[in-house]
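Apologies for my clumsy wording, but could you write out the amino acids of a protein and the tokens describing how it folds?
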Amino acid sequence: MFYVRPIERDDLPAILALSESTGTGLTTLPVNADRLASRIERSVTSFAGHADKAQECYVFALVDDAADKIVGIAAIEAAVGLAEPWYNYHVGTQVHASRELGVYTAAPTLFLTNDHTGHSELCSLFLDARYRHGRNGPLLSKARLLFIAEFAQRFGSKVIAEIRGQLDAEGKSPFWEGLGRHFFAMEYSTADYLTGIGQKSFVAELMPRHPVYVNLLPEAARAVIGEVHADTQPARAMLEQEGFRYEGYVDIFDAGPTLECFRDNIHAVRGSRLFPVEIGDGDPVPDNLSHNVVWLVTNRKFESYRALLVQASARVDRFPLLPYAAAQLDVAEGELVRAVPLSPRDR
């Protein structure tokens, strides 16, 4: 069985090992033990209810129960941009026209913005390559959505997710090579790492403040604006199934898209319901019954949040759990759980 739980201090070696296999572009998982330990400490403090809004961060681990091993990580930043500046480019348009000459041009333009300040962010989603099968990815990603549903008051009215942008075969960003390098005089991987360990002041100091005309960039840089890394295509598709949309904001380093959705419009948030638990007799639930679907089920405990997947009928009044699932969720007969069919088509 796989389940999701809050990160713990003792998980640092496992998370550091995961970070070493992410490659460039996943800014929030730097290969830096001190920075990761600090992030874990922020999460532990947040789950204890002691973090202020600017530092509030919830980090979750996907655990392979059979191997007692962490195989994935995901997180929620409660409010971005309050402790450190939060930059995006917004893809807009500058119109140049002359009635006398009969000339009219609409030029696509990149505007540096802080428009997402105060919004909540889904981030740090990474799954060990050996476990990228079955429903492990959706469990890890969507467990965060039911946490938001259960504790909505802790999050902003809008939720965003930055998707990793396209890199070339050498791990370089065409967008960075076409724009950022001219202002930062460093490799994309170095800028990405410095941002990941919190040294963001150089962005404000060196980034051009005036609009950037897209047509002046090299073709390779223009082509990747709003495009995603091959490894993150499934993550984008998953979020779009839940109602997230690209609204023209891109990352300032690799031009990967930022997806966004109002918190209460996220399909899993809006569609989740509370059910009293009914603990069964221990017989496994057949997974080939035509009326069965896969449910994402969570307890309602803040500090000891748990989420897992359960096979059950598409229509239930009391949620059926086998004893081992109830034990993993730490719920008793009649206690309420929050649940939603994992796939939007089953809701």
User: Anything to note?
Assistant: The chain has ten helices and 15 strands. The first strand starts at residue 2 and ends at 6. The longest helix spans residues 33-47. The mean pLDDT is 90.
